[in-house]
């Protein structure tokens, strides 16, 4: 059992029966009344963010988690098949753990799973930036750079992202998986 004095950014606690990570916290000591801790919490299962206030010294349950690296092998009807990088054991996780980020996942990509003491998977994270090849887009026209116009481009995983007009089929792009936005063109 821990209390509010143990709070730090990134600490995972059990709140209302769900695992939450402390995104931000602030200890407040008003002129009158008791001190309290104002927190911003993110649900690791749903991604929902909420603000909550704890009384100073209030007890909380800390969730002990282990980060494990897995390699994404392929998709199947029951979910995503992953391989443990150390034991080479294969597991299948539901696609819902990654939400829409599964659109940017290609074979061989590394996934990090958060696993609690009961060997239950709490959440899954893919790299923030991935490199994807453009398989389909309209050709850009020379001199058409007066504004920052964007065009849709389909990448090798099947996702469609908006890219600048100078991007052509076969180009390799760096994509931000948090927003699904084009970052830059990668040199081959």
From TrEMBL:
Assigned keywords, A-Z: Cytoplasm, Elongation factor, Protein biosynthesis
Keyword rRNA processing: no
Pfam short name (any one): EFP_N
Origin superkingdom: Bacteria
Primary residence: cytoplasm
CDD domains, per the entry: S1_EF-P_repeat_1, S1_EF-P_repeat_2
Domain Translation elongation factor P/YeiP central: from-to ranges: 67-121
Pathway(s) the chain acts in: Protein biosynthesis; polypeptide chain elongation
Localization of this protein: Cytoplasm
A single BP term in Gene Ontology: peptide biosynthetic process
Keyword Ion transport attached: no
GO CC annotations, alphabetized: cytosol
GO MF entry, a single one: translation elongation factor activity
Domain Elongation factor P C-terminal intervals: 130-185
Function of the molecule: Involved in peptide bond synthesis. Stimulates efficient translation and peptide-bond synthesis on native or reconstituted 70S ribosomes in vitro. Probably functions indirectly by altering the affinity of the ribosome for aminoacyl-tRNA, thus increasing their reactivity as acceptors for peptidyl transferase.
Family (UniProt): Belongs to the elongation factor P family.
Official protein name in the record: Elongation factor P
Organism per entry: Melioribacter roseus (strain DSM 23840 / JCM 17771 / VKM B-2668 / P3M-2)
